[in-house]
Amino acid sequence: MSLAQSARHDAGGARDGMPSAGKPALWVFMGVVTVLFAQFLHAYIVRMGYADWQRLPTLPTVWLNTALLLLSSAALQWAQVAGRHGRRAGMRGGLFLGGVLALAFLAGQLWLWRQLTALDYVIASGPASSFFYLLSGLHGIHLIGGLVAWGMTIRRVGHNDVTADGLLAVELCARYWHFLLALWLVLLGLLFIVPPATILAICSSA
Amino acid sequence: MAYSSAEQHHEPHSFWTRYVWSQDHKVIAVQYTITAIAVGMVALVLSNLMRLQLGFPGRFAFIDANHYYQYVTLHGMIMVVYLLTALFLGGFGNYLIPLMVGARDMVFPLLNMLSYWVYLLAVLVLMASFFVPGGPTGAGWTLYPPQSILPGTPGSDWGIILMLVSLLIFIVAATMGGLNYVITVLQARTRGMTLMRMPLTVWGIFVATIMALLAFPSLFVSGVMLLFDKVLGTSFFMPAIVSMGQALSYKGGSPILFQHLFWFFGHPEVYIVALPAFGIVSDLISTHSRKKIFGYHMMVWAIVMIGALSFVVWAHHMFVSGMNPYFGFFFATTTLIIAVPTAIKVYNWVLTLWHSDIHLSVPMLFAIGFISTFLIGGLTGLFLGNVSVDIPLSNTYFVVAHFHMVMGVSPILVIFGGLYHWFPKVTGRLMNETLGKLHFWVTFLGTYAIYFPMHYLGILGMPRRYYAYDNYAFIPASAQQLNAFITVAALIVGVTQLVFLYNLVHSTFRGRPAGSNPWRATTLEWQTPETPPGHGNWGAEQPEVHRWAYDYSVPGMAQDFVPQNSAVAGGGDDHDQTVVKAAPRRGRKKT
Prior knowledge:
The structure holds two protein chains of two kinds.
Chain A: H1 3-10, H2 22-48, H3 60-84, H4 88-118, H5 127-157, H6 164-193, H7 196-205
Chain B: H1 5-8, H2 15-20, H3 25-55, H4 65-101, H5 109-128, H6 159-187, H7 200-231, E1 242-243, E2 246-247, H8 255-288, H9 296-309, H10 325-337, H11 339-353, H12 362-385, H13 387-393, H14 397-427, H15 433-460, H16 477-510
Antiparallel strand pairs in B: 1-2
Helix pairs in contact in B: 3-4, 3-5, 3-16, 4-6, 4-7, 4-8, 4-14, 5-6, 6-7, 7-8, 7-9, 8-11, 8-12, 8-14, 9-11, 11-12, 12-14, 12-15, 14-15, 15-16
């Protein structure tokens, strides 16, 4: 995902004096990812209605990871606000911290996978297990894509004052992070928290 | 971020950056087109091999049942995804969107380049499946589980894995391209180019791209989950099953779920291919009949309506899979409703032609041929949209005839028409007209010779997907004669495509110089300062648009067309406004 980078390099290229295309492009991309996950969750909820459904245990690591992603998103929000006020140090610090926390989240997810595997919940051991690995893995891949854009943004804002380009890149990162956080909260709810009976009651009445 | 165009557009100088690792949308479009045509030739050969077996069963020893199913599968998949989708969006979309909306390039050139190379990777992975043990998958292009990943189906070891991986890669490529096309249309239109002044080609490709962005995720989901079932032993789609006398470890999955996901992609896919064709054909007809398109606004809204409706009709592909009768009723109704905007488009094309100055150039012949084949294919679609008619016909050649007419032949005719039409802009030379007419007539009459008889075979009850028809008492011997006739026609049409390829290559180097606007067309791509257009397309100044794209034969004008960037009074937009608006939709503000 090098949208942020593309936004800087390419904006203004297609039309003389064109405003940056990074923002609308990110919105469209998030729309596509939303559709992608909506389709997965559609399949998930259909499958949940079968009699043999058994949910995975909610290990404490799930909460730890959720907290890490929340903090990561908050740090990027901090970076964005600091950047808008022209505070270079705050922007760089928040950006850096946000990325590190996201890496910690990914490490935590891998740890969660190992814990579940140790409990004999492997990918083929049941539908809930299969969906968990699939959805958390896919979410992680999207976060890794975000981290690539984050790495480029770090390089860009590293040595300069707050520029319009740099701030835009930080804002795009923050927006994408909030999106991935929201996506994770939806996954968290459907995978671990909301009782299957409730989900099925809501979805079958709709 | 106020760039001047000169700073932004460093023209690439080395051969590699100009023609291979190019970020110029025009080069990428040509790369897409050549790759798609190459892979399409593979699919053409596969179809002729299939026809050899059907027309002369058993005569060709190397075509055994396994090979036959592999040919069927790869022919379908290549044609639908790797040829039609890639050529319309990656080829025509890439070339025409920036030029037609007056942009200097796509908004994200780097992403655009990546899109092509990722697409090429998808094609190579698919082609690699011809060379793995067991060969490519023979599961049918719909890849329905459980059979697609179980032993007994050809290519169930490696072929199916490469097929699924290739599709996933293709979707990544299509998404990268799609982001570009959508944002370019939304953000990079030149001054004066309002949405309602865009040529219908751009509208068709634009809406089709949005549909692709919404529909391909569904294929991605089904592809990933099927791949997991195959490789990692999950049971997303796989029920408990006994295969070759052995109980497998799968249990509890839903094959029907795959069908829903697949067709939620699969039906919009029909219109992802059809909408660009609709758009291009509208422009060809208007240009070559020297008349404004009839009902421009209606045409735009029909495109949007068809795009939206096509997302709520998918289960009409599953009537034979069984479903709640109310669902069947719903999907049959939505399917028939889609005929309304589609019929509006056909009427408007015909009304555009009515009393117009028709020039039977090669692009125009293909455009008119399209109206005919699309109408025939669309009418049989009305039969098949009804559950009670679909069920007996669904597994017969009637369906083969229907979908080939409506989404096989029809878009292919438009692709040919488009290639003949825009070739002079891409190369600066005209294609040979005599060869083009030969190509058209053999292809057009040939497709009728091939697909018209198939309707009768279908009504006779001749099942599709079969390798051989021995010992089916209800199939008369004359059906075999018809099959032999169809095969001969298919071979003739297949060989005739070599004439097209020869024309394409020969005219690129030896064609008659075309000048900048050989069809005397109004749209911006014909108004570039250079032909072929240079890097950045427009020289120092981007064009400013003063009118819609269809000012043909405006009364009182010196010429029978007024280019979109012409500031002369007269003509105007759809409602025959005589006042030309300056309409600076978005000024040149610094950001």
